[in-house]
Amino acid sequence: MYSRITDFQGFERQALRRGVNVQRIDNAPVPVEGSSWDVAFKFRGKDRNLKAIITRLNEPTENRLYTAANGLDGVTQIELVPLSRNRTRIAVSLELSPQSLSARLLLQSLKLAKNSLSRRFGMRVTDFAEDVEKFHRKGA
After folding, report:
1. Is 44 exposed, middle or buried (0-12, 13-18, 19+ CB in 10 A)?
2. Which pLDDT belongs to residue 139?
3. Tell me: the pLDDT tens digits for 26-48?
4. Distance CA 31, CA 47 (A)
């Protein structure tokens, strides 16, 4: 499972297919702690730029990614907890902190829609986990 959550090239391809411009900054042959990307996309009708940096790769249990976008900093943490030989729990958390007034206002509007956003985020994580499970059942 760890190989699937560290498939950064696959994530880059998915983003490119969705019209997101992704540019890897470092020259490491494979992503390592400190690897980073510049990402450009449209959100709510405006062009947005995001910088993402891997701050922790602790195989086989944890990844941490720092992001900074338009005054809004974030830390995404993915933890894998083995429950048995064939079962692993995936825990994904996202912590956002505003660095500007406009980011503070955006975060406030996100808090108003927290239940809906949390439900959608949970569904996306569940879909990803199910895809990983299908991939491993095929023996790939």
Report:
1. exposed
2. 66
3. 888 888 899 999 999 988 788 88
4. 26
- The gap between the terminal CA atoms of the chain, to the nearest Å, is 11
- Burial class of residue 87, CB neighbours in 10 A (0-12, 13-18, 19+): exposed
Domain 2-137 sits in CATH 3.30.530.20: yes
The pTM for the full model equals 0.80
Is 51's pLDDT higher than 70?
A: yes
Half-sphere exposure of 135 (CA within 13 A, CB side): 11
Task: Find all residues with CB under 8 Å of 121, minimum gap 6, and list them.
Answer: 92, 94
Residue that the structure tokens 């042959």 belong to: 29
- Residue 30 per-residue DSSP state: S
The answer to whether the CB of 136 falls within 8 A of the CB of 1 is yes
